[in-house]
Amino acid sequence: MNTSVATYGSHSALQILKGAKDEGLGAVLLCPRNRRKFYERFRLADKLLLVDSVEDLLRKDIQDSLMGMGSILVPHGTIISDVEISRFVKDFKVPIFGNRELLVWESDRELKEKLLKEASIEVPRAFSSPDEVDCPVIVKLPGAEGGRGYFLASGREDLIKKLTKMGAGTSCELYIQEYVIGVTVYPHFFYSPLKGEVELLGVDRRYETNVDSLGRIPASDQLNLDVQPTYEVVGNIPLVIRESMLEKFFDIAESFVEATKRLVPPGIIGPFCIEAICRSPDDIVVFEFSARIVAGTNLFISGSPYSYLLHGEGMSMGRRIAKEIRLACETSDLKKLVT
Ligand code: AMP
User: Fold this and answer.
1) Residue 188 domain flag
2) pTM of the prediction?
3) Which pLDDT tens digit goes with each residue over 319-330?
4) Do 188 and 171 sit in the same domain of this protein?
5) Which of 75, 108, 291, 303 could anchor a disulfide with 102, C-beta 3.0 to 4.6 Å?
6) In terms of residue numbers, what domain contains 296?
7) Sorting pLDDT into bands at 50, 70 and 90, what band is 172?
């Protein structure tokens, strides 16, 4: 039985399938029924299993089919956001590329902060009550994610005024974080358990609406419009980081890898992203991480400047995952990569 890579049809599925094929592995798509035509246009999947939603991945017949095809699931952001992740990691019995427990940590704000602190990475200050606020803050309402349901307050009074206007009160479960003023940078890393090494494979910044459009409105008009920033991602923009800053990002990534090994053994496996804001070239704050492939890697399906330096042409994150699986199959080391 040959090994195949399986993924769900959304997010970064195209590059995951292409990467599998380029490395000589089978490519299986768990395809939402209404997206069949779209995915068939690219002719990348060797096998298409039609499903209604991510929830169907928990069906016994689907899991049996995946097992029968020697599949390893590559998880991505849609899988994390569209099912209750703790239930998914418990009930999905097919091998997952990566550390499935870390997907749970990624989805929980407190665990996430705990991991970043364990890595001694600077994170934005968090306030447990609006009364403690003494700087501009970004407020993440309960259940808010992906930049939806966030709002900004310039300080304590502004925050209390906004919460009162929203009828949210000051006692509801708010996640109040220092608003870090600087530029956002999202480096995509890959930790290879086979080599014991962190690789930088690309960098992007997210294009978020409406916050990235505010600079096009003169300040005087912004005052009249009373416009509030929102942070929903609509795309990604490629970035290269000043070469003199790259080492700091590697330091952060390596501290992160070591912290995951201590707190969530066996630690991170494969792709992850550090979501950072640079106040200045020397002052980097990390407000989030993703413990799996991020959609910003879709920029680099034919490779990035950094993946070119390490691997030559055409090394996407999807292909890097497949390459690690192929190498592990050749040396009977697959257990180092899947959970
Ligand atoms: P997240 O859902 O945490 O990835 O955040 C969505 C977007 O909100 C980010 O890409 C940033 O533009 C912005 N953001 C989140 N947290 C902060 C913060 N602490 N300071 C400044 N901007 C932030």
Assistant:
1) yes
2) 0.95
3) 999 999 999 999
4) no
5) 291
6) 109-122+182-220+234-330
7) low
Q: Are residues 241 and 322 in the same domain?
A: yes
**Distances, alpha carbon 286 to alpha carbons 90, 92, 166, 253, in Å:** 29, 31, 29, 11
Q: Check which CATH number belongs to the domain holding 74 and give it.
A: 3.40.50.20
Which residue ranges have their beta carbon within 6 Å of ligand 1? Answer: 124, 138, 145-147, 150, 177-180, 184, 206, 208, 231, 275, 277, 287-288
Instruction: Return d(Cα 237, Cα 155) in angstroms, integer.
Output: 31
Number of structural domains (the chain) is 3
Q: CATH no. for residue 145? A: 3.30.1490.20
Mean pLDDT calculated for residue range 162-176: 78
- Is there a cis peptide before residue 187, judged by omega within 30 degrees of 0? no
Query: Which of 231, 233, 237 to mutate to test ligand 1, by most ligand atoms within 8 A of the CB atom?
Result: 231
Show the tokens assigned to 247: 């080492």
Both structure tokens of 176: 């109040």
What is the largest distance, in Å, between two alpha-carbon atoms of the chain? 66
200 and 135 assigned to the same domain: no
- Pairing type for strands 270-280 and 4-8 reads unpaired
List, in sequence order, every beta strand (DSSP E) within 146-295: 148-153, 175-178, 183-192, 197-210, 231-238, 270-280, 283-290
